[in-house]
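seq as requested:
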Amino acid sequence: MATRSLDFSDLPEGDLWVFGYGSLMWRPGFDYLEEVPARLIGEHRALCVYSINHRGTHEKPGLVLGLDRGGACQGIAFRVAEALRAETLAYLRQREQVTGVYREVMRSVWLEDDARRRVRALTYVVDRSHPQYTGPLSIEEQFRYVAHSHGKSGPNRDYVISTVKALEARGCRDPHLHHLAALLQGDTLMHR
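struct tokens:
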């Protein structure tokens, strides 16, 4: 599948903002000057991507987050120094575009700081035409995928729980993700 990436010329001049809504919040993996709580309007965080690499395998896929149409998403906006734009972009493409399931886009995000600024941020949005896009899954289906899958980046359950902890640390709540994390943590306690 072709990767959907921006041309370097599509990026705004100066420092680069990157919007994180999943593992980028708790493990960005790149240097940045500033991190600010942010809100993206028009897309929501959803466990809507089959993970066959980072949190699962082809034989036993896990689930990871994508931004899907509708709603809003609280996350983190990272400001990357202009001098590190190319390096950061290369890193993010290697990490996020392994299978081409995301479209690399620029979106307006509202920074939830004192100034309430709006910036354009690099964002990874799920490609609904990609075979790894799950469409809507029930909480029971999500639990079955996440509870026992494991990929090169570790157990799928750790991914979900770490994302929930990152949201809580910033005073955010994602009811659906929090419910799944509670089920996963209950399952962990039952298996001890």
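The chain is about 30% helix and 35% strand.
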